[in-house]
Design goal:
304 residues, wza like fold, Outer membrane lipoprotein wza fold like, 3 domains, six-stranded mixed β-sheet, five-stranded mixed β-sheet, 8 helices
Length: 304
């Protein structure tokens, strides 16, 4: 996924309120000026009055001013330069030195955002880190990016992106699929597969106990372990009742999973309930207040 996102051409920056621009006209020094885009998206400019800048790229704004000036100047050559990027914001939350809301520049990347937030803390759990875009999780390999320097994972960001890096001490085990209560089970040691499923209310009548899946490790490239829980229950095969680790995702399907590779292709759809669990348990307490501007202690607007 990261490679696909990285290979896409970067979107041009769309101007908005609080952005500042400089407008100049070749051979007309007196027409050079700086302006901050108002809350209505407009800037004042000599000769032509208020110009709608919000919603345009710098080049579209250049063409617009150039067109308007043509009524006063023969063949004007206009240059528009962005001085300050202030209208677009991204959110860097969790285990970074300075969690908060950051102003993003054009071509702002994932690594730049984490660096702007002071980098990760010693308690960062990179295998569980993720990026939310338009309500969807993007499975980025944060461990590869930050620990191993894999720049393929360094994707360009878009306005409104939420980067979340959880605390390794808060990791739970997530039980999803055909259980009576999809939930995050507090980790205790030891915690076996069947104990976690029991904590989640047990199997539903539609559960296929022969193909229980455990997803372990980085969300973008997890290790996939399949377990025949029916055999554990029927034959008391305790060796197959594997101990779970922090951050494991247990998925109980309703049908037999015969092809693990095909299952991996469907992984993002299977993880969607997990994302909802994560948002409810982890993000609600922090991100919601940040987005609503209420958390003034842990999240603040950082001007860069």
């Amino acid at each position: 996924m990261a490679k696909v996102l990285k290979d896409r051409p970067p979107a041009e920056y769309i101007l908005g309120p609080e952005d500042s621009v400089e407008v100049s006209v070749f051979r007309y020094e007196e027409l050079k000026m700086e302006a901050t885009i108002s809350s209505t998206g407009k800037i004042p400019y000599y000769l032509i009055g208020d110009v709608q800048a919000g919603g345009l790229t710098q080049f579209q704004l250049r063409d617009k001013i150039q067109h308007e000036l043509a009524a006063f100047i023969k063949d004007p050559k206009v240059v528009v330069r962005i001085i300050e990027y202030r209208s677009h914001k991204i959110f860097v939350l969790g285990q970074v030195a300075n969690p908060g809301v950051y102003r993003m520049k054009n071509d702002y990347t994932l690594l730049e955002a984490i660096s702007s937030a002071g980098g990760i803390t010693a308690d960062a759990y990179l295998n569980g880190a993720y990026l939310v875009r338009d309500g969807k999780i993007l499975l980025i390999n944060f461990l590869d990016l930050i620990r191993r320097g894999n720049t393929e994972e360094n994707i360009p960001l878009l306005p409104g992106d939420i980067i979340y890096i959880p605390d390794k001490s808060e990791q739970k085990v997530y039980i999803l699929g055909e259980v009576n209560k999809q939930s995050a089970v507090p980790m205790r040691e030891p915690l076996t597969l069947l104990e976690a499923i029991t904590d989640a209310g047990g199997f539903t009548l539609d559960a296929n106990r022969k193909s229980v899946v455990v997803l372990r490790g980085n969300l973008s490239e997890p290790e996939i372990i399949t377990v025949d829980a029916k055999r554990i229950l029927k034959e008391s095969d305790l060796a197959a009742n594997i101990p779970l680790q922090r951050g494991d995702i247990v998925y109980v399907p309703s049908s037999l999973i015969a092809d693990v590779e095909r299952f991996a292709i469907r992984l993002s759809n299977i993880l969607e309930p997990y994302l909802q669990v994560m948002r409810g348990i982890i993000l609600t307490d922090i991100a919601t207040r940040v987005l609503e501007g209420e958390d003034i202690v842990r999240a603040r607007v950082i001007v860069k």
